[in-house]
């Protein structure tokens, strides 16, 4: 089992990832933390609780995180994920609440009380993680590795160069990228290729209640298209943890641009000119057919009848 802390801003692709996280026994979920990103932190926290309720995983602790980026002003992505962040399916009102301590303290406690090192997966803006590393640097020795969905070496989805999670809080991304932790960046270079095709979405909806819930969310998802397929950005982090052989990685020094017209860009020193060392394992390619097949299998395994 992989001990995991999952930092997220649901968000439709976040919900698609949380579906796997909460149902696949390979993951020992120690904590889920929310952050302002796709929608406000009040909404992302509620959305996490809706999903822990949906999957009867109220045993999983949920902590509310940052309501705005470290420095920049906050802007949501409700144009892509709807006003609620998870539109199209009517979830029941959750019966549990977020912890009384905030995400940073909850992460710290979960890390220092864990007998083994914990994998951190971050699929929203990196504000919570940056705060953790700044306020509690001693937490670093308890982190096995960090898998992030964010960044891109091949163009952005917010500006021509910036990806949404990094663009939302570039100052936080810079702190995380330069922390010295073992970081794998699953960015748009792969996530814009790993599209869930519409045939697959239809198959999903015929499988079970979970598949229907997902299909309803996907039909409101403003990223990609039904014809070409929709990018399941955040889901790739979990596919990577379970099937790393399906990805091609390259190590680079990656800088985060924190001001100017390229703010939010992630720039790799591909010619090794400015740095002798590397700080990030960058996912450059993924087996898309394997990704689609795996996602179907994962949903099909869920017994929610
Ligand atoms: C990332 O931005 C968010 O909108 C998605 O949930 C994903 O984490 C893609 O750029
Ligand atoms: Ca996300």
Automatic annotation (TrEMBL):
<dbReference type="GO" id="GO:0005829">
    <property type="term" value="C:cytosol"/>
</dbReference>
<dbReference type="InterPro" id="IPR036452">
    <property type="entry name" value="Ribo_hydro-like"/>
</dbReference>
<keyword id="KW-0378">Hydrolase</keyword>
<feature type="domain" description="Inosine/uridine-preferring nucleoside hydrolase">
    <location>
        <begin position="4"/>
        <end position="292"/>
    </location>
</feature>
<protein>
    <submittedName>
        <fullName>Inosine-uridine nucleoside N-ribohydrolase</fullName>
    </submittedName>
</protein>
<dbReference type="InterPro" id="IPR023186">
    <property type="entry name" value="IUNH"/>
</dbReference>
<dbReference type="Pfam" id="PF01156">
    <property type="entry name" value="IU_nuc_hydro"/>
</dbReference>
<keyword id="KW-0326">Glycosidase</keyword>
<dbReference type="GO" id="GO:0008477">
    <property type="term" value="F:purine nucleosidase activity"/>
</dbReference>
<dbReference type="InterPro" id="IPR001910">
    <property type="entry name" value="Inosine/uridine_hydrolase_dom"/>
</dbReference>
<dbReference type="GO" id="GO:0006152">
    <property type="term" value="P:purine nucleoside catabolic process"/>
</dbReference>
């Amino acid at each position: 089992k992989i001990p995991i802390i999952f930092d997220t801003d649901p968000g439709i692709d976040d919900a698609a990832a949380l579906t796997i996280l909460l149902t696949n026994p390979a993951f020992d979920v120690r904590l889920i933390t929310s952050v302002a990103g796709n929608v406000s932190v009040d909404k992302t926290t509620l959305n996490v609780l809706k999903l822990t309720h949906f999957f009867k995983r109220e045993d999983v602790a949920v902590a509310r995180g940052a309501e705005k980026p470290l420095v920049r002003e906050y802007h949501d992505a409700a144009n892509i994920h709807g006003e609620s962040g998870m539109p199209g399916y009517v979830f029941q009102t959750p019966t549990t609440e977020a912890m009384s301590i905030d995400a940073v303290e909850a992460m710290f406690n979960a890390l220092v009380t864990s007998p083994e090192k914990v994998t951190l997966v971050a699929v929203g803006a990196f504000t919570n993680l940056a705060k953790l590393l700044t306020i509690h640097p001693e937490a670093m020795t308890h982190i096995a590795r960090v898998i992030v969905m964010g960044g891109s070496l091949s163009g952005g989805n917010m500006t021509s160069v910036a990806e949404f999670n990094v663009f939302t809080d570039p100052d936080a991304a810079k702190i995380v990228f330069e922390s010295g932790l073992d970081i794998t960046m699953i960015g748009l270079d792969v996530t814009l290729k790993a599209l869930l095709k519409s045939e697959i979405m239809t198959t999903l909806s015929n499988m079970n209640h979970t598949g229907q819930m997902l299909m309803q969310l996907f039909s409101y998802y403003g990223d990609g298209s039904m014809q070409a397929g929709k990018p399941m950005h955040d889901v790739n982090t979990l596919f990577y943890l379970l099937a790393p052989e399906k990805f091609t990685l390259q190590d680079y020094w990656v800088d985060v641009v924190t001001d100017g017209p390229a703010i939010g860009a992630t720039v790799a020193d591909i010619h090794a000119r400015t740095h002798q060392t590397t700080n990030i394992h960058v996912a450059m390619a993924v087996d898309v057919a394997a990704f689609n097949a795996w996602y179907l299998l994962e949903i099909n395994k869920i017994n929610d009848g």
